[in-house]
Amino acid sequence: MRIRGGGNEKDTQNMKIKLCLLLAVLSHVAVLPGFAAQAHAQNRNPSLRPLAELSEALQDLSSRISPSVVQVVGTGYGLQAGDEHTGANVLSKERSSGSGIIVSEDGYIMTNAHVIDDARSIRVKLNGQHNGQTSQFDAKLIGKDRLLDLALLKIQATNLTPLRLGNSLDVKQGELVLAFGSPLRMDNSVSMGVVSAPARQLSEDDPRIYIQTDAPINPGNSGGPLVDVEGRLVGINTFIFSQSGGSEGIGFAIPSNVVRYVYASLRKDVHVYRGQIGSFVKTITERRA
């Protein structure tokens, strides 16, 4: 190092020593955070590492799924009891809320039919900003199927983040799942549980099959996704069995394979066609026998 100045040789030597000391201190300060992080990692209890890894994995999964989940609000009008003395009914504004999932980049959204039943207008709220777009949109009802309790909506938006559809036939009992949605209008919420039964039939006369889960589901979760640890949709949360009105660990989701079929049918034909075998009933008389 060459130092230029007006001092003598002794001053120059002192300045060299001071600069060397300063550089040593600065280099020590620069590497100190690295040593601290390494020491913290070494001092972490090894038995807690699996929990920390699970927590980080769930955080990552949640951040990837949230942009594909929306809040759905339907507004309509209904009759309510008015003055008890007159017995007249009053026409009043009603609002229902639930959740939905983005199934295409160009704004198609699946939800439950009961979320938007009797709604005169439908509003969809995205989770945060999507490529600078507004977070709220007016939605158009493309079609719905009341029996399967599914509906397809469309908003004027592009470059959205669709949720991957999994194969509900691969779902196993005890599998870890997460439920996303807007319970009690608290948008962008997540809860965790396991699959209690991969194919639950509620009664012998009801051909519909549901995925049963103990993941906490409350009013407002309807239409939201039930996802596996890979971030794939395995079902749409639909209803719960409850004596208190809140979650008691018995929730039901429409399997993803049914969602896939209904989405394709509603988008193409605005209607869900069911299979027919062409048979009919006729009385067998003695002559026909």
Layout of helices and strands:
Elements: H1 9-43, H2 49-65, E1 69-81, E2 89-102, E3 108-111, H3 113-116, E4 121-126, E5 136-145, E6 150-154, E7 176-181, E8 189-201, E9 209-213, E10 225-227, E11 233-240, E12 251-255, H4 256-269
Order of helices and strands: HHEEEHEEEEEEEEEH
Report the strand count.
12
The number of helical elements comes to 4
Going by helix content, strand content and strand pairing, the class is alpha+beta
Average pLDDT over all residues? 83
Q: Residue ranges: pLDDT <50 for 5 or more in a row?
A: 1-10
Shape: globular
Strand order of the largest sheet: 1-2-3-6-5-4
Q: How much helical structure, as a percent, in the residues? A: 10-25%
Radius of gyration over alpha carbons? 30 Å
In percent terms, what proportion of residues is strand? 25-35%
Distance between the termini: 116 Å
Largest sheet: 6 strands, antiparallel, barrel
Overview of this protein structure:
It contains 4 helices and 12 strands, in the order ααβββαβββββββββα. It has helices at 9-43, 49-65, 113-116, 256-269; strands spanning 69-81, 89-102, 108-111, 121-126, 136-145, 150-154, 176-181, 189-201, 209-213, 225-227, 233-240, 251-255. The strands form 2 sheets. It has a 6-stranded antiparallel β-barrel. The chain has a 6-stranded antiparallel β-barrel with strand order 7-8-9-12-11-10.
